[in-house]
Structures are given as C-alpha cells and as structure tokens.
Recover the amino acids of this structure.
C-alpha cells in the first residue's frame, strides 16, 4: 500500500492506495469523507466529479491518485459552508440554481475555476465554459444566471 | 395516555446514520434512529402519523412523498406551517421512511402536494383546532377569539398568549384527523403562495446534502454487479483468476446473478470491470431501427377505446377536408445523472434498505415478496438521490443490495455504473400515433380519430433484475403509468375517438418517465392541430382560441402570446430567412390529463439548413396549476420540464440491437448541453381560490409540439418523429423524410 501526499482544501494530507491508478474521486469520498464530488459516469463525460487541482478544474474520476502528489486539491467543501459560502456558492443559492443537486458541486467547481481565469466573462463564454457539465434536471437557465451573478459579485 | 417522543427516538433501533435535516433548526439532531419505532403511528387517520411537535417549538412532518429535487419538502412545510401558524423554517420534513411515515402512496403523477401536501394540511388543520382548544382552556378565552401566529396562540384582539411548544411540549396529540377541520382562508395566507428558499439548495451548493450515495453504515462492504452482456443471457462460467491481482475481492454468484464485493470501493469497481465471465447468447429484441414499423406490425394483445364521442371514423370519412398524420416517440431513458445507489443491511427475514426510490412503501413490499422477507421487519428509508423523473434503476439497485446483503450477512452498498444506469433502467415506452381529422366547409373540426400503438401494460410488480438473474420466481408486471391520456384534442370537435392498440410484445422493461404517455400524445395532438391550422391558412393561436371556451385555457394562451409578442399569421413563416438561417415560432397548448394544469408554451427557433441543427432562441410558458404554494420552486420545476423535454425532443433515443441496449453513456445517449439552453420566461397564473394541482411534470407535455410547430413555421417541413437530430432534420429538409408518414389530404 503506497502513500500519496498532497494538499487538500488547504492542509497537507496523505492518502493510501493499493493502486496508483485509483481515481482521486474514490480517495476523496472514502478516505477523506468529502462527498461533494459525485460519481456520475467514471468516463469524464459529465463533470459531476469536478474538483480543482492547482486552480484548474479537473475530473476527479479521471485523475489518478499518483498524479495528485504534491498538488493542491480544492473540493466544493473547501470553498465555503452553508453559513459562509464563497461567492459562487452564494450566487447558486441566491438563484436557487439546483434541483436534485447531483451535478451542482461539479458546476460550482467548474464555474469557480473558470471565473478565476476569466473574471469578466460574456454570456456566451459562460455557456461554453459549462458545455462539458451535464445537468439532467434542466436547471440550466438558473445555473447560467448564477455564474453571471458570481462574475458581478 | 401521553408518550414522550424524544425517549422513543432515543430508544429507536440498532442503526444510526448521520442525517442532516434538523441541523438548521438550531437543534442538532444529527443522529436519527431509522429502525422501527412501533409506538410512532403511521396510520393515515392519526394526526400524530403526520406531525410531531417538540418543546423547542419545532415541528417534524412525516410523509411518504419524497423530494427528488422538486422542492416538495419545502412546499409541504409551507402548507403545514400555514395551518399551524408556525413558520415553515421551524418545520422539518421526514420523507419516505417506511417505519416512520404514513403511506400516502408513491411519489408519482405529480401527487406530492395534491395528495401528500393536502393530507398533511388537513392533519395540521386538525392539530390547529386541538391546539386552540387547549389554549382556550388555559387562557380562559373563547376558541373563536384565538389565532396562532409565529408559534403562539394569541387572542385576536391582543393580550397575553401561550406558545404551542408550552402547550404540547414533546407530547403527542392522540387525535384522529378531522376531515371537516376548517382550513385557513387563502386570502389570509402568510406562507403559502410566497417564495421560500429551499433549505436543501444551500446544502447542495456546499457539498453537505446527504445523498444515499454518501451513506456509510458500520461494517458496510462495497459491491458492484456484473450484468449480463445480453438481456436474458445466462451465466456459464466465471474466471476467478481474472481478478486475482485485485486485493480482497469476493465474488458473489447466485445463478446468473454475478457480483463482486470488497471493503474498498475502487477494488470492487475494478473487479467488476475486469472479471471475465462466459455467458450464453441471447437475441430477444427486435432492434431499434424501424421500431415504428415494428410497433405497427406487432401482434396486438387487445384494442381499447379510451375516448369516444359520436362517430369519429364516419365523421372523418364524410368530411370536406381530411388530413392524416403519423407521429412516433422512441424509448427514452431516465438517464439520471448519478447512477443508482442503495445500501442494504439484511439480517434474517428483515433489515433496513436505504434507497432514493420514489416509492419506498411499494419497494418494501416488492422486496419482501421477492426475497422472502417479512415486510413488518423491513424498513425502506429514503435518502436523496440523483433526480429520477419516474422509476429509474433505483429499485433494481436496492434489490441488488438486498440480495447480496442477505447472501453474505453484511451491510452492502451497491452503486451502478453509468453504462448500467443508461442501459438497464426501465424505460419510457415507444409510442406510435396516427391521427385522422376531418374539417367541414366552414372550418369546423367534425371528426378526430386517434389510433395509438402502445406496449401492453401487465399487472403485477415490476420484475427485479437481480431476482430474474438469480432465478428467484417473481411477478413480471409492466407498468409505464397512464400513457393513453391527452390523446384527444382539447378543442371543440363534434366526433372524437381515441383507440389504443395494445402491443403484446414489450422489448424493454417499462416504467413511468416524466409525463408518461402524455409527452408523445400531446406532441401528436398539438402537432396535428397545427397541421389543421396550416391547412386552413389560419394563425395557429387564432385557430386554437376559436375552438376553446374554458377561460383558464384562453388565459394561458393569451398570456403566452402576449409575452412572446405573437403576430397573427398562418405558418409557415413567409419571411423565415435570416442570413443562412431559417427562423420561426410555434405554440402548443394543453390541459394536463384533460383535467389538471392549463399550460401554453411558445418558442422561437432557428434552423440551419446546411447542418440540420435546431437552435431554440427563447421560450415563454404560461402555467395555471390552481393554488400556487411556492412560486419560485414551481418556476424551477417548469423550467426543468421545458429544458429536459427539449433534450428529449432534440437528442434522446434509446437504441438497441437484437441483444442489448446500445445507448449506454453520454456519448451514445446524448442530452442537451449548456450552449443549447434557451432563455425561458415562466408566467404563473395563481388561483388561490382553486385546488392546487401537481406541477412536477405537466409542463413537459406541450414542449415537443411547440418545437415541431416552430420548426414547421421556419422551414415548412413537419417533423413527426422524435428526436429531431440534426441528421434527421437535414434529411427532412432535403425531402428525404422520414420514418413517419406525412400529412396528406385523403
């Protein structure tokens, strides 16, 4: 069982895995009890498992644990809490931009990474930035409004 | 006799799980007993079955109606709070736990509020009566002079009051629901009809909402099921050496039910993917290519006339102008974003199953029947899941977990793969619809004759995959919901018939999928209405309004037309061309089930004739579901219905060959993406004086027709077969259309 050290939501951690190819998603959920990132497809097609690695949005279902060593991982839990949400989370709450919520963590992490790179996005840039994230409940218009609101915040 | 409920909860049962629903009430009840508490009533006649009062002034509501992302929890808290005079922020809702919640039926057909909320409202009105009577005795004020505001019973004229909490404490009311207990008057509502944020949204935006996927119970193992490569294939042999390199994995095989179990989830995932097994060949399916023709030619089990008024066939055949058209809707998947998950802990003939099932009570009964458990000793506890929009694979996942847990004697968590979720969830059925219409010389519709070819519904429980694979005898019911409704037009027509040809052979397992049946029937009826309007060279809205008399119908259409900025003219659009694109507008109207919501949807589209791509530029919807409980949550649902149905109409079709479903992931079963999502304007018609109607699915039904009508307006080409993929649209524009027959004058 090898050990993999990285930063997780601002603190140094180490994860154990028998398989260097184990996706970060399972490590986050089962070793660190961080359940915000969701298993949606395991194929990198839906975005429900999105987290940030060194500030970039990545699919944790496609990120091997051995590739995380020395990196800084941020999950939805690292952004804020219900009592103290960050600006993207607060914008999603204000727009009530969730139904079942299964895609929401991935949406927010994708949007947070995007806004960090593109602080003043156009409406079309926002649409394109979320093109790889799927929402099945059809909450799209609210999510787009939430990201616009966060950009203005 | 007065029983202290808090003691009961402490005494609960063996299994404690983290449960977040109370945390925001200022009372940290994180641990909650989920085992049977025999003392808590669940009988539908008892107020205490629905409501529990606590000495800190909070209330818990119990219901079997679960919140699959609709906001029904919040709306139920508003309805209960309104009657009780207690702010909904102080009301928690426990949903779908068979040990604690009265069985108000499953969550389907938009009955969350129409039955769930309405029964709870009556229980709360009964409780209000009792609370006011208690306060009257204590304050020596006549009951008629008392009201409840903010959790306090007060004289209407002012003066000292007494809190509900001090009157009841933690105790029960021990009274029957009084069906005559007076309800609050809508004009005096303080909570109902006002937007109230859903508390689950803040949790969902911070990764702290508790989903069934997130549940861990002590000693729990992770399991994955290896489904057969073909429907009906039998397991011949398993090569255990193929997963030797993966540590601590156990194979659990019962007949042709094959699964792998491990303490480590990733080990189970890898083992399921890498396990080599030999299966028999199986070719039981007709294939999805030409499914419309297959459906028409398939053996009819029986015919059923579901609507008849006059002699439609004779009226059509004698009409001055006749039109016929055929419409087709393919199999579609719930395609839940999160593959289904369940946790089961079975000991002997009982235990607990955690599931996101929309019908926990029905699931408990079905699991007990199939796996030989005692339903009195089985608890199905709902936890949130990924949105399901009907009965998705969740009940099957629960059966998988039960079978494995029962076999190995340990708690087991099963999560499905993406491929299994999209491939094996029970599907919304294919629907083939012919409509024949006749119009007389004055433009009156004299005859309307709808023929539907639908897969036969079979009585009995839905067969569980695990049980079939394990060789356990069970019922093989087929149910897809009320799929014949809305096959008749909502307009003035002299002679109407809706005739159903029930097709005996049902290739894929069926279930209810959002607006079951209605989605295709309204697509056909409202497309055909547009075809009649176009044939009469009449504006589509004027054509509809001329044949409607119900003021609620007229109001939603008029509101939608105004919001859209509708200019009256016949379709197609004489000035459709905008550069390389063609543009047009479409309308569809419907009264859901011909008895419930009134909805009109208009949209503006563009069509790129070079590629066949349809773009929806904007959507306007006017929606009347009677009394509105939470307008913002309601709009969220309506928007969701519209976007999801645009996805279904533009992209979605389950494909299968002779052996298996071949649309199994987001590449082979694509859904709508953000760049395609249009702006949507929803206009609510609030009618506080009218009964509330469910709204979780109704707005689904008119979407595809409004889209097809807009494409016709833009292009002059009629799309009658879903999905309207770019390839299919391009072919239709080139005149090479399509699998369905065109409208033709007879």
């Amino acid at each position: 069982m090898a050990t993999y050290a990285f930063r997780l939501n601002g603190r140094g951690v180490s994860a154990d895995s028998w398989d260097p190819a184990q996706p970060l998603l399972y490590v986050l959920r089962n070793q660190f009890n961080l359940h915000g990132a969701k298993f949606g497809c395991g194929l990198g097609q839906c975005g429900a498992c999105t987290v940030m690695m060194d500030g970039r949005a990545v699919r944790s279902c496609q990120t091997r644990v051995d590739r995380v060593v020395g990196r800084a991982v941020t999950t939805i839990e690292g952004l804020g809490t219900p009592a103290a949400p960050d600006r993207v989370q607060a914008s999603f709450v204000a727009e009530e931009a969730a139904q079942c919520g299964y895609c929401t963590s991935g949406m927010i992490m994708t949007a947070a990474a995007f806004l960090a790179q593109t602080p003043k996005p156009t409406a079309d840039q926002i649409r394109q930035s979320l093109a790889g994230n799927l929402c099945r409940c059809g909450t799209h218009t609210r999510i787009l409004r939430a990201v616009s609101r966060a950009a203005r915040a | 006799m007065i029983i202290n409920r808090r003691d009961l909860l402490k005494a609960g049962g063996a299994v404690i799980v983290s449960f977040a629903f109370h945390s925001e009430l200022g009372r940290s009840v994180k641990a909650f007993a989920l085992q049977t508490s025999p003392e808590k009533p669940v009988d539908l006649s008892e107020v205490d079955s629905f409501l529990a009062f606590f000495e800190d002034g909070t209330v818990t509501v119990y219901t079997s109606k679960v919140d699959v992302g609709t906001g029904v929890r919040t709306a139920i808290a508003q309805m209960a709070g309104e009657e009780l005079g207690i702010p909904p922020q102080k009301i928690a809702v426990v949903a779908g736990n068979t040990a604690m919640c009265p069985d108000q039926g499953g969550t389907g057909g938009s009955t969350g509020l129409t039955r769930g909320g309405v029964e709870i409202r009556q229980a709360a009105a009964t409780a209000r009566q009792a609370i006011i009577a208690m306060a009257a005795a204590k304050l020596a004020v006549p009951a008629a002079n008392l009201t409840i505001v903010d959790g306090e019973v007060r004289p209407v004229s002012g003066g000292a009051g007494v809190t509900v909490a001090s009157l009841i404490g933690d105790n029960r009311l021990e009274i029957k629901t009084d069906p005559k207990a007076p309800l609050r008057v809508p004009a005096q509502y303080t909570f109902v009809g006002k937007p109230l944020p859903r508390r689950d949204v803040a949790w969902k935006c911070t990764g702290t909402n508790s989903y069934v996927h997130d549940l861990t119970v002590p000693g729990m193992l992770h399991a994955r099921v290896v489904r057969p490569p073909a429907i009906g294939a039998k397991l011949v042999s398993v090569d255990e050496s193929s997963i030797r390199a993966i540590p601590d994995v156990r194979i659990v095989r019962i007949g042709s039910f094959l699964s792998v179990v491990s303490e480590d989830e990733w080990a189970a995932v890898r083992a399921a993917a890498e396990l080599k097994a030999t299966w028999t060949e199986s070719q039981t399916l007709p294939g999805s290519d030409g499914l419309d023709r297959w459906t028409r030619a398939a053996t009819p089990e029986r015919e059923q006339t579901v609507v008849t008024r006059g002699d439609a066939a004779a009226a059509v055949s004698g009409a001055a102008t006749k039109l016929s058209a055929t419409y087709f809707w393919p199999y579609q998947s719930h395609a839940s974003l999160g593959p289904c998950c369940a946790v089961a802990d079975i000991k002997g003939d009982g235990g607990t199953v955690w599931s996101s099932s929309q019908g926990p009570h029905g699931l408990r009964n079905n699991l007990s029947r199939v796996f030989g458990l005692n339903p009195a000793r089985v608890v199905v506890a709902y936890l949130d899941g990924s949105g399901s929009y009907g009965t998705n694979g969740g009940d099957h996942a629960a059966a998988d977990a039960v079978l494995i847990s029962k076999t190995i004697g340990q708690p087991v968590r099963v999560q499905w793969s993406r491929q299994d979720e999209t491939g094996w969830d029970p599907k919304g059925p294919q629907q083939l619809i012919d409509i024949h219409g006749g119009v007389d010389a004055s433009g009156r519709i004299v005859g309307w004759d709808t023929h539907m070819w639908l897969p036969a519904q079979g009585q009995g429980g839905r067969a569980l995959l695990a049980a079939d694979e394990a060789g356990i005898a069970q019922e093989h019911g087929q149910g897809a919901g009320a799929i014949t409704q809305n096959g008749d037009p909502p307009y003035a027509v002299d002679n109407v018939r809706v005739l159903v040809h029930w097709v005996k052979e049902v290739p894929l397992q069926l279930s209810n999928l959002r607006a079951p049946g209605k989605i295709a029937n309204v697509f056909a009826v409202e497309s055909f209405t547009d075809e009649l309007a176009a044939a009469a060279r009449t504006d589509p809205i004027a054509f509809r309004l001329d044949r409607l008399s119900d003021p609620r119908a007229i109001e939603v259409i008029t509101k939608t037309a105004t919001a859209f900025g509708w200019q009256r003219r016949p379709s197609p659009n004489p000035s459709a061309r905008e550069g390389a694109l063609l543009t047009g507008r479409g309308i569809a109207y419907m009264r859901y089930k011909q008895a419930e919501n009134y909805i009109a949807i208009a949209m503006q589209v563009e069509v790129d004739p070079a590629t066949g791509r349809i773009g929806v530029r904007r959507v306007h919807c006017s929606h009347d579901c009677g009394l509105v409980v939470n307008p913002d949550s309601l709009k969220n649902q309506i928007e969701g219905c519209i976007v999801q149905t645009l996805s279904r109409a533009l992209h979605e079709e389950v494909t299968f060959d002779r052996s298996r479903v071949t649309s199994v992931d987001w590449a082979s079963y694509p859904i709508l993406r953000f760049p395609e999502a249009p702006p949507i304007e929803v206009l609510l018609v609030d009618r506080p004086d009218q009964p509330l109607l469910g709204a979780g699915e109704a707005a689904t039904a008119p979407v595809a027709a409004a889209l097809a009508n807009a494409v016709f307006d833009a292009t002059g080409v009629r799309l009658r077969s879903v999905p309207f993929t770019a390839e299919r649209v391009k072919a239709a524009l080139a005149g090479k259309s399509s699998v369905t027959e065109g409208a033709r004058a007879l």
Summary: Residues 104-117 of chain A form the longest helix (14 residues). The first strand of chain A starts at residue 2 and ends at 8. Chain A has a mean pLDDT of 98. Helices of chain A lie at 24-31, 76-79, 87-94, 104-117, 123-129, 140-152.
